[in-house]
TrEMBL record:
Protein name: DUF3298 domain-containing protein
Segment forming the signal sequence: none
Lineage: Bacteria, Bacillati, Bacillota, Clostridia, Lachnospirales
Domain DUF3298: 138-217
Organism: Herbinix hemicellulosilytica
Domain Deacetylase PdaC per the UniProt entry, residue ranges: 21-119
Amino acid sequence: MPECRIFVGKNVITQEMYYKNQVILTYTVNYPYFTSHYNLLILEQINAYYRTRAMMYINKEIKNLYMQATVDYEYAMANQFPVRQYEIYEDFTVTYNRDCILSFYFDRYVYTGGAHGSTVRTSDSWNIACSRPLSITDLFSAGTDIREYYIREILEQIKNEPQNGIMMYFDDYENLVRENLNLSNFYLTNDGVVIYFQQYEIAPYASGIPEFLIPFSEDGAVLPDFC
């Protein structure tokens, strides 16, 4: 197979939304587009998917948040409270782009008042050569208990972290890791697979989004060959 170099671009949609001549919501949605000299059809389909994903989010979810913001505005004005402007910001980070394999994640931050907003992470990986999404099961030999493998690796990393480290976890983190591990919440890097948890799942808000890099290895995850 010839070298498959994929170029990554960014589309940006941003807007200030007004109500009674005041901005009550701002949003910025960034989404990727990909180009290459090879595999043009699958890349066009992927680009269409993320374009549609962005527009559906704007036309449905952000529209609903705007309606909620108008209600909060009226309540604040009626009770002489400060008006809190809603904010939505979504961006993506490409973490792996080699040998016809793409991996990246989206962070979507939403603020609707209160002390702070919340961030939700999603991720996707694609085997461009095979024209299909890349599942975590594609990285392991058949019959491997992938869930137990990652639970063991994550708990070992947490136990070996310095006691005065930056990350903090809930006291019952062992049970929470087992309950909240989602094998769809992963992305690839040059060094291995990163498994992540959402805010509050295993750690307080101040810890952000907990991430665990599990290196590629013979008894763990291995990148697939071309189709």
